[in-house]
Amino acid sequence: MDDTVSYIDRFQTFNLSLAPSAPGSALPFNLTPTLRATTLLSSPTPLIYGTGADVGLGSGEPALNAVNHTHYFAGRSDNFDPSRLSTNPNNGRFDPESIRVSNDGKSVFVSDEYGPDLYQFDRRTGNRIRSFALPDNLAISVLSSQKSIEKDKSLNPTGRVTNKGMEGLAITPDGKMLVGIMQKGLQQDSKKSLRIVTVDIETGTTHEYAYQLTDGSGVSDMIAVNNHQFLVDERDGNGMADTPLISDTASAAGVKELFLIDLDGAQDVTDLSGDLSSYAVKKTLFLNMVDVLNAHGIDSLDIPSKMEGVAFGQDVVINGVTKHTLYVANDNDFLPMIADPHKSPGDTTRGMVPNPNRFYVFAFDDSDLPGFVPQRIRAMHVSFCHSGGHDERQGDVNWRRY
User: Fold this and answer.
1) What pLDDT does residue 400 have?
2) DSSP 345
3) Whole-prediction pTM value?
4) What separation in angstroms does the CA of 48 have from each of 59, 71, 141, 314, 378?
5) Is the dihedral of CA 95, 87, 133, 159 positive or negative?
6) What is the pLDDT of residues 312-349, one digit of tens each?
7) What are the extents of the domains in the chain?
8) Residue in 305, 331, 400 with CA at minimum distance from that of residue 168
9) What is the pLDDT of residues 83-119, one digit of tens each?
């Protein structure tokens, strides 16, 4: 069985304080992330969990279910119903990849690569309030707790490749449409032809469009510039954290790029398959992250291999000029320590070094990204509990731009 750690899926809420650096600092701003809350993801109705009996493991059902009288989503790879498609919303296995906040601030939308799935959760409680029906051509029919079996094209000639499902998710600034993107090509497609899936939040209507990889091996996220333009995060697997063991040889970060695409005029490819390159949306390079980070003194060996989270942030003033900000975060794959990438496997002084999650902030202005429209999210009232009783702190009720 793959991925037998039965973690409970969750989202973390951070305060990201971006403040001017001290005089003489290499960069004009410092970012201080502070964890504010952890919210576990659950379902109001029962979920399917594996027994683990055939491989000598216990149940895939989280023990906390009985304590909190709920049904938590978990990462166990056998938490599924083998008689239904992989997009069955009753499956307890869930591998969340991207998250977006609704315009009213009351819920979050989360994409998953197991199904692929797209769910809406209450932002306060973490309880699922809606499951969006995605097209059947994205699903596989032969499910397994081992990805080597699921990826076998003789068993699953169509549908997502295991661990390469809906990796990225955007919400349009008007709050009316979700736009997801698959990390890799479907089994029935050329591997460089990826699928973009749009979902009308009100009606659930879906459309599919093609995206063609340029230099990277896959896509990790996307974000809305306006209601029809999007930035797509394309990357390879090279960089920091691709060397978790002392015996591994490090590789320098190569492709970490953001491309601007436009869905206006794009052709729906839902009923097509194979090489979709002739239908692919037009794309232009917006940001080469490796080049920019190198220019600011960050070695390619220290740039994370998995740059996977993208979001717009607060405006800042640099040298009297107002700039927009773009935040990019990495996925460290739960590896707190990795082999020192600056030393070779044969070096007797080579040791382990920290591998934290990192946030990078890039500045841009309207001339860099014409047509940029920030999403307006209404802030929530947030309650915090502490050991001395109940402490309620009221959130800002004004509109905020993100």
Assistant:
1) 41
2) T
3) 0.93
4) 11, 9, 16, 41, 35
5) positive
6) 999 999 989 999 999 999 999 889 999 999 999 999 99
7) 10-401
8) 331
9) 999 999 999 999 999 999 999 999 999 999 999 999 9
Q: 241 by DSSP, 3-state: which?
A: coil
| Closest listed residue to residue 128, CA positions, set 137, 118, 143 | 118
Using an 8 Å Cβ cutoff, are 259 and 232 in contact?
yes
CA 184 – CA 189 distance, rounded (Å) = 9
C-alpha triplet 57, 46, 83: angle, nearest 5°: 70
How far apart are alpha carbons 59 and 65 in whole angstroms? 12
CB 267 within 8 A of CB 281: no
Of 45, 43, 47, the C-alpha closest to 60 is 47
- How far separated are the first and last CA of the chain, in Å rounded? 40
Distance separating alpha carbons of residues 139 and 118, to the nearest angstrom: 13
Using CA atoms, how far apart are residues 101 and 376, in angstroms rounded to an integer?
Answer: 10
Give the integer Cα–Cα distance in Å for 111 and 195. 14
Best CA proximity match to 39, nearest among 15, 64, 9, 16: 9
Structure tokens at 276: 């979709």
**In the block, residue with structure tokens 């692929």:** 116
